[in-house]
Amino acid sequence: MQERALSSPEERAINDFRLVYRLFQEIAKVSDRKDFGKSFRARAREMPSLLYEVGVIPALSFMYAKTDDADKQVYRIFVDFVRNIQITPEDSKKLNSTEGGYAAYLYLTLLEIKRLMPEKNMDPSTPISCIDALIGFGRVPVILPSLLMPYLLEIKRLAEAVFPSE
């Protein structure tokens, strides 16, 4: 399905959630632990309010810090999965973590921000460049949580329906 055909935030969320669910299924092939699903569900429940409370840029920075990308490269591994690059069982184990849940949630959030702000040419595979693009963009980051909410609430509903709680 082409992205243009997905006109509503809810439709985009359902389509994007398939990616996260596919990863959950891949991880289940190599591990009985469900840490990725639990973490993603927790992020889907708590991050929408954090976006309102602290603002978009601090919330994105917080999520990126929680991916532990500097040491474990969890975000990079998730992006490889998104790009259909074969990930190793060891990489699957790294994604089956709290950090993996943060990485997936951050990626979906950046993907939706990219759709809402196409003129910024953001690349969700590089969170720092996305955060950089939002800095100095006037009042847009202030209204961004409201624009993101229908998408994020649909992601939350799907995560609560599919993934176990922590």
UniProtKB/TrEMBL annotation:
Signal peptide from the UniProt entry: none
Concerning Pfam families, the annotation shows: Cas_Cmr5
Q: Which UniProt keywords apply?
A: Antiviral defense, Cytoplasm
**Any one cellular component term from GO for this entry?**
cytoplasm
UniProt KW Cytoplasm keyword: yes
Q: Which family does it belong to?
A: Belongs to the CRISPR system Cmr5 family.
Q: What is this protein called?
A: CRISPR type III-B/RAMP module-associated protein Cmr5
Species, as recorded: Candidatus Methanodesulfokora washburnensis
Give the taxonomic lineage as stored in the record: Archaea, Thermoproteota, Candidatus Korarchaeia, Candidatus Korarchaeia incertae sedis, Candidatus Methanodesulfokora
